[in-house]
Amino acid sequence: MSSISAGTTSGTALVSTGDTTGNLVLRTNGSTTAMTISTAQVVSLTSSLALLGSVSGSVALTAPATAGTQAYTLPTGLPTASGQVLSATTAGVMSWTSTLPVANITVDFLVIAGGGGGGLGDGSTFAAGGGGAGGYRTSTGTSGGGASAESSLILTPATPYTITVGAGGTATSSVATLGGNGFNSVLATVTSIGGSGGNSRASSITPSTGGSGGGGGGTTNGAGGAGTANQGYAGGTGLINGFGGGGGGAGGLGGNYTAPNIGGNGGIGVASSITGSPVTRGGGGGGTGNVKGTASGGGGDGVNYDSPQTTAVAGTANFGGGGGAGITLVAASSAAGGSGVVYIQIPSANSATFSGGVAVTGPATVGANKVYTVTATSTTSETVTFS
Fold it and tell me: Is residue 14 within 8 Å of residue 26, measured between CB atoms?
């Protein structure tokens, strides 16, 4: 064997040997391998590779104690711009990239659909129900229908997600036609169902299922419409050929008519503090009566026929409230439901960008978060993208 001395006083000798494959092996004291140069000209070092500074110091590349088997392929050229960093595929092929991968974003929400329009009574009978509130879903407090908060959305940066604000259901000017159903509101995978319209005097149809159900009335079936689980409640019962039930609310059932002549109250809404202070939204519309059914939480009152006589009240815009039921002896139509709304809460370090057809205010600062309020969308193809 030949030896290569690293020093004459205290240096440990390196002994040059070979192995059965023809590799060159350098060992300390003839036993511990320090370096191997393979016949394929691959250099293997034990422990660390130290690069010495031209004046002093060194930079070491050190493998973990249990290294496994892994290989990295470096890029073929220098970065194309300052600030680029190395990223790698799962095969260890490295390249220069301008930004580091961004972690997924936690998005909290309150999504309320449009409320249903109120039904219409006439001089024969006042049997018209209030509109049901729009479906109410949230990750920051109580959801509609008595449900607890939903899980936050975990969304990917730079990916467009659908966002839609549902319009309120239309009023009706025909005693044979129910109030219009509200329209759905959407944020990514969260869809809140529009409230169903209230029944009208000459209709024998039960109001459809909605986020919350419309109030009952009509000629042969006084039942209100059903609500959607975890979004809202059913509408109240109206007196057939009599007085109307209240529309269901996000927080409670629509009220039944009360003998002898009182319309059912709209179901209550649900309070949320997503904007920083508690606000109640998602109330049902009131039914018709000699004494009107009243409403709260953005729902509209029904017609009060006795003195002082009042017209039906529309649901409040961006509260998802149901519209009040009407009577033709007072006005030609019932009242429309209120439009929905979408609130988006994200950490202050993140931002949201919206497509051109989105009407949005904010962001407002609420604690450590940003809150965007989306009040309208021009189509059902609008998007929001997070960064």
Answer: yes
Domain locations along the chain: 1-48, 102-387
Judged by DSSP in three states, 184 sits in: coil
C-alpha dist (Å) from residue 121 to 118, 214, 223, 332: 10, 14, 16, 10
Nearest to 146 by CA among 285, 268, 293: 268
pTM above 0.70, yes or no: yes
- Count other C-beta atoms under 10 Å from residue 280's C-beta: 18
Q: How does residue 2 score in pLDDT terms, banded at 50, 70 and 90?
A: very low
Radius of gyration in angstroms for the set of CA atoms belonging to the chain, rounded to a whole number: 35
154 half-sphere exposure, CB direction, 13 A CA radius? 4
What is the distance between the alpha carbons of residues 350 and 343, in angstroms, rounded to a whole number? 15
Locus of tokens 């759905």? 184
Per-chain mean pLDDT for the chain: 88
Contact in structure between 245 and 237 (CB atoms under 8 Å)? yes
pLDDT at 163 over 70: yes
Half-sphere exposure of 267 toward its Cβ, with a 13 Å CA cutoff? 42
Whether residue 313 contacts residue 294, with contact meaning beta carbons closer than 8 Å, is answered with: no
Name, in order, each residue with C-beta under 8 angstroms of 41's C-beta and a sequence gap of 6 or more.
none
Q: 3-state class of 352 per DSSP? A: strand
Q: For residues 165 and 340, is the Cβ–Cβ distance under 8 A?
A: yes
31 DSSP assignment: T
DSSP 3-state assignment of 143?
coil
Cβ-proximal residues to 57 (8 Å cutoff; 6+ apart), any chain = none
- In this prediction, residue 11 has a pLDDT band, given cuts at 50, 70 and 90, of very low
| Tens-digit pLDDT profile for residues 69-80 | 788 888 888 888
CB-based contact 196:207 (threshold 8 Å): yes
Q: Which of 343, 167, 208 is nearest to 270 (CA)?
A: 343
DSSP string for residues in 91-139: T-BEEEESSPPPPPEEEEEEEEPPPPPP-EE-SS----PPPPPPPEEES
Question: 53-57, 135-139, 277-281, 324-328: which range is least confident on average?
Answer: 53-57
**Gap between the Cα atoms of 46 and 38, Å rounded:** 14
Tokens 């439901």, residue?
337
